[in-house]
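At this stage, I wrote out one protein's amino acid sequence and its C-alpha cells, and that material follows here:
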Amino acid sequence: MAECTDLSISPSDPPLAAIALGSNLGEPLRQLRSAVQMLAQTAGIDVLAYSPWYCTIPVGPPQPNYWNGCLIARVQLSPWALLKTLQRIEVHFGRQRQEHWGARTLDLDLLLYGDRVITTAELTLPHPRLAERPFVLVPLAAIAPHWRHPLLGETIQTLRERVGDAGIIAVLSDDAGETTFATAADRLLPERR
C-alpha cells in the first residue's frame, strides 16, 4: 500500500491510529495478513495503509525471529475501545500472555491515536517505547514518515533515522511479492515508493 499522506486531524474527523503488528509463532506472515484483514472488516476501523513486513531479531528471552509491520487506520472507536478490539483479535489468533516480551502468535500494539497523550493503568499513548524500537519505527516510517510524535515533536522519519535499522533482517513487500535481505555490509533497506 502507499504512504499515508493525509495525517491531518480536525475535531470533526475521526482520528488516525497507528498500530504495530508482530508475530513469531505459528505461521507469522499468514497471521499478520489475516489480522490486517480482520481489522479492515471491523466496524469503526478503516485501514488506510500498511507497511511491508520486516523480519526482525527478537527483544527479550531467546525465541524465533519476528515478522513486524505497521498500519494506519481512521477510527471511530475510543482509544480504550480500540485497545480492547486489538486484544480480542490477539486472543482470536491464540495469543497467551505468559512471559514478558515472550514469543507470541500475534501482537497488536496501539502506537499513536491522533495526537492524544494518555497515561492510565491500561493504556499509555503514545506507546512508551515507540521512539526506541527499530522494529516499529522502520515499518511505521514506510507509511507515515511525517507523523509527529505528540510528546517529542519529531517526525517518525527523524526518530527512525536516529535508531537506525539494527535488528532488521529482511523486508517482504506484499505489493512486490519478494523478499529483500539486509546484510551487515548493506544495512540500508529499499525505500518504499
